[in-house]
Amino acid sequence: MTLVLPDWLLIAADRPAERSWGVRVVDGLIDAVGPHSNLLAAHPDDDVVDAADKIVLPGFVNAHVHLYGTLAHGIPPAKGAGPDDFWSFLEDYWWPQIEDALDIPMIVAATDFVCAEMLRSGVTTFYDILEAPNALPDALLAQKEVVERRGMRGLLSFEATERAGSEIARLGLEENLRLIDACQPGGLVSGLMCWHTTFTCSADYITEAFGLAADRGVMCHAHVNEGVHEGQWAAERLGARTVEFYAQLGVAGPGFIASQCVQLSDRERELLAELDVKVTHMPLANCEVGGGIAPMPELIDAGVIVGLGSDGYVNDFYEVMRGAFLLHKARLQDPGVMPAETVLHMATEAGAKALSIDHVGRLEPGWSADLQVVDADFPTPVTAHNIADQLVLWRNHSNVCDVMVAGEWRVRGGEVLNTDLDQLRAHSNEQATRLWEMSR
């Protein structure tokens, strides 16, 4: 039994912060919250973690990441010039130079490094999407071993696709099923079913994937309208825009995670809300690929559950939150949209809900003890009314002191436990070098 006693406790993004409140952790769960004096009086024999001058808040949920993406940072384009639109980004760069060149040693190195990197910025839960057609089979099982060793809550999937032929298409679906079946109910690592997009997967293939997920009671995921290309392609080739097409297939619903959702028609926005589709938002990566700025304030106002993700681009989750906080204000020319409390909610409880993970993202009794302890040494006073803004605007990974996942400390004093980060970085660099040489 452990008491964590900070200056400030943020139980959840939608609750006021409490000064001189702490949490009691028992058997991986939050057992009690309340004033320090009450907790100490009620539990005098508990271990006490003195978190003076600190803020305790829920761990972050990175609801969409490509862990292998770190290997691509800075890779020279093989054709000598960078992509000039989203389609060329995929066809001329991302598929041939990155995804088609990946093997299991590369994937393992990237997974290990990025898990440590995410932990350092307060991420306790993540959803990873792997596409590596030439690393099949068993790439997900290799990832699973790494994530379990890191002690993180990880949701893993393989981005099944028909773009690389029928055999790879079959292996992709089987890879997801093998991972799903290998995970223990209630364990930290689990799986779901994933396919790429409407322009790389046929209607029959999507329907098959959806049915396999339904048989096992797991969620489905696909990238949706990351740029202008997919919606236009679907309208021309399928007779309906992407979300409309998924609705026609019976795929769009509470069990479907639609990531990106940057370029949406009015009807697509309506359908996402009407059908209770979950959405994940990657503000910085959408900018990097030139996809645009997704209409997330509008979707949230319509009642859509929206989680936040890094896309494997910038994995310091405080930087990702800052992007979400600032970009929508500029797009809508309204400083009142996307307040810090909304961004924190997307980064915690909403992210968990988008992934259909229960009792993660709040520090209330009965919820998982997934938390972070953050330095509160700001240049201006912290108050209950400004704590969310202080966190979103003025913190980053260097301010995260401690991280707990399911009641176990994974970061202490800013250091990932049982980890040589320099060694992980060197191993990632070594595997990135192999990737770069193979894809020239």
What do you see in this structure?
There is one protein chain. The chain has 440 residues and is of the alpha/beta class. It folds into 2 domains: 2-58 and 371-405, Urease, subunit C, domain 1; 60-354, TIM Barrel. The chain is built from 16 helices and 18 strands. The strands form 3 sheets. Strands 1, 2, 3, 4, 5, 15, 16, 17 and 18 form a 9-stranded mixed sheet that branches. A 5-stranded parallel sheet has the order 10-11-12-13-14. α13 crosses α15 (387-394). The model has no long low-confidence stretch (mean pLDDT 96).
- Specify the CATH architecture of the largest domain: Alpha-Beta Barrel
**Structural class category:** alpha/beta
Could you say how many structural domains there are in total?
2
Number of helices: 16
Unreliable spans: none
Helical residue percent band: 40-55%
- Averaged pLDDT: 96
Q: Specify the CATH homologous superfamily of the largest domain.
A: Metal-dependent hydrolases
Principal-axes shape call? globular
Could you name the CATH topology of the largest domain?
TIM Barrel
N-to-C terminal Cα separation, in Å? 54 Å
Radius of gyration: 21 Å
Share in β-strands? 15-25%
Described by strand count, sense and barrel closure, the largest sheet is: 9 strands, mixed
Number of strands: 18
